């Protein structure tokens, strides 16, 4: 099975969104370069960020998100983001009424079941878990192999935390990747077990 990676852009003080679930300038680095990151033409990054992010994105088979992210993005219109094959949505509720059952989205109750479903779907490819409450729950359950952060030079006064409401200590190994891009610092930490 592929690795489980917790991932997200984050402020220097640990937030993935403000109190209104808005990322503000956290994604500015994704549009501030001159190298297209995908076929949309909307995402352009520095060459350094491209060389780090594109190979990572190409390895992702499944993304795990919470229902709140799914609702905020309107389910990405039924198309998984960034060319990912499947999205597993952690939710106590079923798919929204009128949702296309053929869309590659899977609604699963609980993080352990979500990661198990994602690993089956991903095979030997990566399972990406969105940072925030669900990511923190997956970390607390001992299911995360690696933490990746795109740290953006902004400070939020409050908001949604990168690790959600994790209230216990979790040790990460020293970062094995530290890359400076334009308006972003890419970090990768293996999780200590």
From TrEMBL:
Chain ranges of the Bacterial bifunctional deaminase-reductase C-terminal domain: 112-170
Pfam family, one: RibD_C
InterPro entries recorded: DHFR-like_dom_sf, RibDG_C
Organism domain of life: Bacteria
SUPFAM superfamilies, alphabetized: Dihydrofolate reductase-like
Gene3D superfamilies cross-referenced by the UniProt entry: Dihydrofolate Reductase, subunit A
Protein name according to UniProt: Bacterial bifunctional deaminase-reductase C-terminal domain-containing protein
Species in which this protein is naturally found: Actinoplanes palleronii
The organism's taxonomic lineage, starting at the top: Bacteria, Bacillati, Actinomycetota, Actinomycetes, Micromonosporales
